[in-house]
Amino acid sequence: MALQKQQVVINFAKGLDTKSDPFQVPVGNFLSLQNTVFDKIGRLQKRNGYPALPSLPDTSSTFLTTFNSDLTAIGTSLQALSLGSSTWSNRGNIQPLNLSTMPLVRNNLNQSQCDSVVSSSNLVCTVYTESNGTSNAYKYIVEDSTTGQVILSPGVLTTADPTYGAPRVFLLGYHFVIVFSALIGSNHHLQYLAINATNPSLVGTPTDISTQYTPHSRVSFDGVAANNQLFLAWSGSDVGGAVRMTYLNTSLQQANTVIYAGRQADIMSICADNSTTTPTIYATFHDSGDSNTYTLAVSHTLANILSPTIIGSSSVANIATAANNQTLTAFVEVPNAYGYDSGIPTNYVQKVTCTQTGTVGAIGVVLRSVGLASKAFLLNSKIYALFAHSSQYQPTYFLADSGGNITGKLAYQNGGGYLTTGLPSVTVTGNDVQIPYLYKDLIQAVNKDTNVTAGTQVNGIYSQTGINLATFSVQSSDIVSAEIGSNLNLSGGFIWAYDGYQPTEQGFFVYPDSIEATPSASGGSMSAQKYYYQVTYEWTDNQGNAFRSAPSIPITVTTTTGSSSVSLNVPTLRLTYKTSSALKIVIYRWSAAQESYYQVTSINQPLLNNPAVDYVTFTDTLSDATILGNNLIYTTGGVVENISPPAANTLTLFDDRLWLVDAEDPNLLWYSKQVIEATPVEMSDLFTVYVAPNISAQGATGPITALSALDDKLVIFKANAMYFMSGTGPDNTGANNQYGQPTFVTATIGCNNQHSIVYTPHGIMFQSDKGIWLLGRDLSTTYIGAPVEGYTTGATVQSAVNIPGTNQVRFTLDTGITLMYDYYVSQWSTFTGVPAISSTLYQGYHTFLNALGQVYQESPGTYLDGSNPVLMSFITNWINIAGLQGFERAYHFYLLGNYISPHKLNVQIAYDYAPGPSQTSLISPDNYSGTYGTDSLYGNGNPYGGTPTLEQWRVFLQQMKCQSFQIYINEIYDSTFGVPPGAGLTLSGLNLTVGTKLGRPKLRAGKSVG
Questions:
Q1: DSSP SS3 for 335
Q2: Closest CA to 904 of 885, 923, 920
Q3: How far apart are CA 908 and CA 901, in angstroms?
Q4: Nearest to 583 by CA among 512, 487, 665
Q5: Which of 374, 532, 598, 956 could form a disulfide with 630 if both were Cys (CB 3.0 to 4.6 A apart)?
Q6: CA 703, CA 724: separation in Å to the nearest integer?
């Protein structure tokens, strides 16, 4: 009996479907759909091409954005594109960095020193000195460095002598090796304790390294793990004093000790140069005998390479070293104090180099007003260390490289200050750097009330410290930007602000403190009365925005005559990226007769900052009448003072304010004062919102991971939860705050990828761990990315952009694929050939950056990605009209389209659910005949009508009897066409001629059971 033929029409009004079983994808959907857009419903047409823009000078840039409509790329520097000259301009160094912290030790006692090392299994062993107020103890603990779970409870080093120095810990093979000063009888020993790094419950017993050890309070031993050996250097007590070196192997067997006689080390730093096949070990120490600083070098077998060589002669408080390419770099912390008050420490760090052959470089200053807070370490051929700013009110840590470039700020106002009993180790894993640090966790607040009638000022009192672990992810591509206040604000180890001229820190790292004022009975026109002074740092950026630091703590003086003057000593700002020639130190004065803070420093001849010195002196001679009408300090009227924002890994804009998540406390939101015309972003530690990690109906939801504005709401994302806030924020005095408490959104999804968030007319789309979702404007959630789940599973969205003039949202993935969603037709397709690592809108067009530093911009009407043609292709669903495993007879199908420019089509057919096609046909359209010689196209004008546009083809199936078949169509461009690649064609649909047959496929016996 003849089969009844059926016509199955497939119009191209649908997009991808990778969510359904690939054998059961509905008719009209595609299993693959590349380089097509849905500008006309029911028609597939080719996307635009991406011609190349000028390439970046290197491949360090990982993030693309715009500022003032100019294309901006960010990596280890900030690059701005000048289209006129087709070049990128370097606007200054910048280091992308992410920060996270985790508590290691917290209790009712005080920890005064710490050291940690992290194993490859993410266990962290921490050793520390703990005080109960009357005595010290050396302790150790092992924890999970990811969750903080205690694996090995705190133990005590029973033979330790906590009078001297501090313990250190190293990772050697499968052991945590703790090295410490021990007192056995009346003799000082250097000992180690080994803890199994895979099973920390296996704790060894204290074992001697040396019985000839000269301890010192500043730690006269150190070690470094290299070449599967733990190299140790210490100050020995034999032969009248000596530097001794040895190593332990992974079996904890000790090598013979080598001795450098005649040296007495009170500070020791050891490092390894791993730039060659076998490491060179450098030991750098301060000799307490002659007060010189020496370095020496040995091979991995302890053979001498460089005998002790003097590299410095100044007084030394700490030493940190790193080595690379046969050259040692030593950071030397120099004790220092303000000249006007020796009780206020203001140490600084110098740098000196020494080659293996003993050539010593010139000594230079790395940073002023800081000391060392960690050992030095090498990352991507650059040397870094953690530095401590010790201040009565602002103890803070800064991560900086050997050039003094600050890349991160940590524990503002809560840092542990200068370290005197050894520097913490640094664990470097890939681009992740982990450093333990002291954190002041019990604090009595500082009274910084500028109302001088409020009472006597009190100092900050910190009664104890704990220990945290900081993780810096250096050279991360996870940068987030927000343009507001005429600045481009960038996330990182601190918030960067770019004004079109240079990137600097947002606000000021520190405000002026330790101000001194001394009255004189002569030399001025000041009357006899009580005066108060406050000082700010002030700077105007390239956009004309005036930045002001927090004011200093008010200081008071009383003059006794009508011709008095006051001499003020003010610390300079030595930690800044801001141009010093334009950075002012501004002094304001209040008096009993004139109860407002008026500026006393000159506007025309300002008191300028000088980071090369510790302080400047200013003499105030002006009467109250003279300064009346001068600028008032900006905090007048109760305006909240400006505080530099913390490190942040994500930020956004909402309610005319910059919002960010505190990297050190990811449950805490900071928001700026309201940004108005001609004002910069101004942050305050009083403008924060705490979002508890357990506000929900489903238990703990964890830290904040992303932010986005949605109409009149701020959406707060966590990994698997969402909240929202609404309302308007406070004025600059902190009053009239109408922000509501965070409200839980009933959903079981969240977002931990700020780069995936994009605004659409229907709400915001974002990537969760369950794919791409839509949060509607009514706060409903829709799994809008289900059709492209096959692409998003295991992939990370690197940028998301809503394209102007279209209905398209484009998501670039780290797999090199770009997903395109058309929110008018609610369909998905993919773009291939545009492997972006970041993208943005520039001049209204989608612009992307790839891993080679190449930049491409969409150009309507062109169909080249650089020099590569854009080509359409698709794979249909499995066509099985007789059921999933029924028989059908497929005769042929018609393909309907519209010819636009020369192309060929490769048509392939797969049968019976086979993983690939078995039939191939090449279609060469005859719409275009080419040119003859230099003649124009024959029939190109009237009366012939030009090139015909209709394109339709019939394709016969070679295996007509089948369970199912699937059609592959790939566009081909041939350079012999003689014209550039064009739009090719549009495709409107397929018309299939098929029939069904009775029966089921026959299977061999081995495929049958029962």
A1: coil
A2: 923
A3: 22
A4: 512
A5: 598
A6: 15
Cis peptide before 943 (omega within 30 of 0): yes
Q: CA 674 to CA 687: how far, in whole Å? A: 11
Pairing of strands 258-261, 6-11: unpaired
Match 């089509």 to its residue by tokens.
Answer: 905
| Burial category of 181 from C-beta neighbours within 10 Å (exposed 0-12, middle 13-18, buried 19 and up) | buried
Q: CB pairs under 8 A, 24+ apart, for 760-765?
A: 760/802, 760/809, 760/823, 761/823, 762/823, 763/710, 764/708, 764/710, 764/715, 765/800, 765/809, 765/821
Q: Which among 689, 684, 586, 584 is positioned nearest to 641, based on CA atoms? A: 684
| Inter-CA distances, 64 with 98, 844, 853, Å | 17, 14, 10
Q: What 3-state class would DSSP assign to 959?
A: coil
The predicted-structure confidence for 741-760, as pLDDT tens digits, reads as follows 999 998 889 999 999 999 99
Cβ-contact 778, 790 below 8 angstroms: no
Do 598 and 628 touch, CB atoms closer than 8 A? yes
Q: Hey, what are 722's tokens?
A: 């969402």
Name the DSSP class of 493.
B
Q: What is d(CA 750, CA 768) in angstroms, rounded to the nearest whole number?
A: 6
Task: Average the pLDDT over 164-171 and give the result.
Answer: 92
The phi, psi pair for 480, rounded to 5°, reads: -125, 140
pTM over 0.85: yes
> What are the DSSP calls for 290-327, one per residue?
T--EEEEEE-TT--EEEEEEEEE-S--SEEEEEEETTE
pLDDT tens-digit readout, 412-436: 999 999 998 999 999 999 999 999 9
- Structure token pair of residue 760: 């659409």
Residue 568, burial from CB neighbour count under 10 angstroms (0-12, 13-18, 19+) = buried
pLDDT score at 939: 45
Ramachandran bin of 381, using left for φ above 0, alpha for ψ from -120 to 50, beta for the remaining angles: left
What Å distances lie between residue 760 and 301, 402, 447, 654, 823, CA to CA? 65, 45, 47, 16, 8
- Under 8 Å between Cβ of 559 and 524: no
Contact 145, 434 (CB under 8 A): yes
Look at residue 169 and tell me whether its pLDDT is greater than 60.
Answer: yes
Q: Pull the structure tokens for residue 493.
A: 């180890």
Return the pLDDT at 83.
85
CA-CA-CA-CA torsion sign (288, 289, 295, 301): negative
CB–CB of 432/399 below 8 Å? Answer: no
CB atoms within 10 A of CB 742: 19
Distances in Å between the Cα of 106 and the Cα atoms of 128, 412, 463 are: 12, 19, 13
Average pLDDT over the chain reads 92
Domain annotation for the chain: domains and CATH numbers = 6-38+873-997 (2.60.120), 50-96+837-858 (no CATH), 97-474 (2.130.10.10), 508-627 (2.60.40)
For 565, the 3-state DSSP assignment is: strand
Sequence length of the chain is 1010
pLDDT category, 444, cuts 50, 70, 90?
low
- Residue corresponding to tokens 């484009």: 810
* End-to-end CA separation in angstroms for the chain: 33
Is 670's pLDDT higher than 70? Answer: yes
Taking alpha carbons only, the member of 376, 331, 381 closest to residue 353 is 331
**pLDDT greater at residue 309 or residue 107:** 309
Secondary structure of residue 572 in the 3-state scheme: coil
One-character DSSP codes across 665-720: STTEEEEPPPP-TT------TTSEEE--TT-SSSS---SEEEEEEETTEEEEEETT
Give rounded-to-5 percent helix, strand, coil for the chain.
5, 50, 50
